[in-house]
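re: that chain from earlier
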Amino acid sequence: MEFVRGNKATRGHAADGKDLLLFEALGKGKGIRFKGVFSCTSWETRSGPDKSGNPRRVIVFHLVPADGIEYIPPVAGTSLEELRRKAYEASRDVTERSTSDARRSYYKRSADVRAYVLARAAGTCEACKRPAPFVRLDGLPYLEPHHTRRVSDGGPDDPRWMGAVCSNCHREIHHGANGSALNVKLQEYLGSIETAPR
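^ sequence. v structure.
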């Protein structure tokens, strides 16, 4: 197996701003079941049989549900440039790992991207440009990370496709009549401020 077509798309889905939708085959003639939006945390190679039973190298992707990522504020005094560096490293960090390291790696990478995106916004909604609606218990302005090119709001992503928005804009993007237009406007803004480091 090689990293081409579907394997390449699976490994690079977050950096490409794409959802990874998982379906389960229920058996012959029984259809399929949607399992949800997942994120590829890492991968490993193993030996396995091909259709004829001959040994071959197979790629095993480690997937975790793309929800429930809790925001962990960055260490005080961390510069915006350092947060940005970590976020872009994290968005590219889908590498070969053992199964036991996959979940821990995923949550750490997600935290790095979210920390940068929220710090980049500096307390101002990146959609409506208004100040955050309130201050969190830890004293930081309350904004929500929003994945502009994904169906869900979870999982590691690339800072080019993730904005920090107020709860009103976030709900409007997902549920409002003008949501799609607001999301496009946010994507354009992010495109004007973010370019991946080389």
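Helices lie at 5-11, 80-91, 99-121, 167-175, 179-193.
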